[in-house]
Amino acid sequence: MRRMLVSRISRRVLAEHHLALSSAFHGRDHDPDGGDHVGIIYTNLKVKDCVQRCVRYLTDAANQSAEERNPGKVLPRRPNVVIDGQLDTEFSYIREHLE
Questions:
Q1: Nearest to 58 by CA among 41, 80, 88
Q2: Strands (DSSP E) along the chain, which ranges?
Q3: What is the pLDDT of residues 35-86, one digit of tens each?
């Protein structure tokens, strides 16, 4: 089972990377973040920015869901996310896998 899952993920990553490289080659590269990347591999991924983007997305999604379930009620408080350490750290990685 493990080998099958690793094989499937590997093929999917290779296919996504190939499609991204092909789009860039043909001038159809649409990067909303404007980040430095080669295909799907971001060459200087900023961990702090990635974590903050995920926190914003999850907070917005939770607030929207709570508002839909209980219209007009006070939304529950969400825990604060504290990012500590070397905040300027950058490395090459596939952003979607980190997120």
A1: 80
A2: 37-38, 41-46, 90-94
A3: 687 888 888 888 888 888 988 888 888 878 777 777 777 666 777 889 898 8
C-alpha 82 chain-centroid distance:
18
pTM exceeding 0.85: no
Cα separation, 8 vs 17, in Å, equals: 14
- Structure-token pair, residue 77: 């408080």
Residue 76's nearest CA partner among 85, 63, 86, 95 is 63
Closest alpha carbon to 94 in 23, 22, 15, 25? 15
Tell me the C-alpha distance between 66 and 72, whole Å: 10
If you compute the radius of gyration of the chain from its CA atoms, what whole number of angstroms results?
18
Q: For residue 6, what is the enclosing H or E element?
A: helix 2-25
Tokens of 52: 């903050």
